[in-house]
Amino acid sequence: MNTPRFQAAWLLLGVIGPSQAAELDPETLSSAKAFLVDYLKRSNTGNGDLTALYRDTALIYLTVTTQNRQTQARVLNGPDWKRLLRGRMATTNQGIEPMELHQVRIQVQGQNLEIAALRYSLNRCYWDMNYRLVITREGAGPYKIVKENRFSDHNNQCQTPTADILTLKQAIKIQQNPLP
User: Fold this and answer.
1) How far apart are the C-alpha atoms of 102 and 115, rounded to whole Å?
2) CATH class label, 4-166
3) Closest CA to 150 of 79, 47, 73
4) If 81 and its partner were Cys, which of 60, 63, 146, 164 is the partner (CB 3.0–4.6 Å)?
5) What is the pLDDT of residues 124-163, one digit of tens each?
6) All structural domains of the chain with their residue ranges
7) 133, 145 in Cβ contact below 8 A?
């Protein structure tokens, strides 16, 4: 599968800067990257159980700008967030909100890893400038999300092409002599 949404997950492998890599041992960095690739794949394609990546004790801090431009903030616990995800996945063919992550930074936070990034919504063309994800693992088990801060804008900010955008702007030279 080589769709643009899936390619975004693979682009992530090269965006974690060297300053963050110096703080993490190579195995931790590699497993954190693998987690993010899996997370993006599940989010963006709807393939796989996205809810399996969240602990039941997770806290999701969600700020939403509604279509009438009202801002609402709420905190969801793991089971409530998983119900919301399952409902969304059941009603759409895509993930909860296909996205790209840019300028990914990873820091060790005790036993956890905090991931900060600029999150771009592919469906509605907006930036989440304060995206945060905290992951942890028990022993050698897989990483699980224990905290997530995310912003969602319900207004579609994608620009539709206009006639001006589609107009070819080039100099056309007309030859005066008739063709032979």
Assistant:
1) 11
2) alpha beta
3) 73
4) 60
5) 899 999 999 999 998 888 999 999 999 988 888 887 765 5
6) 4-166
7) yes
Q: CA 97 → CA 39, 124, 161, 167, distances in Å? A: 12, 9, 23, 32
User: Which residue carries 């393939």 as its tokens?
Assistant: 47
Q: How far apart are CA 161 and CA 36, in angstroms?
A: 33
What is the rounded distance in angstroms from the CA atom of residue 61 to the CA atom of residue 150?
Answer: 6
**pLDDT tens, position by position, 65-101:** 888 888 999 999 999 999 988 887 777 655 577 899 9
Q: Give the CA distances from residue 22 to residues 34, 35, 90, 105, 106, in Å, rounded to whole numbers and listed in that order.
A: 18, 19, 41, 12, 10
The closest alpha carbon to 16, from 41, 36, 2, belongs to 36
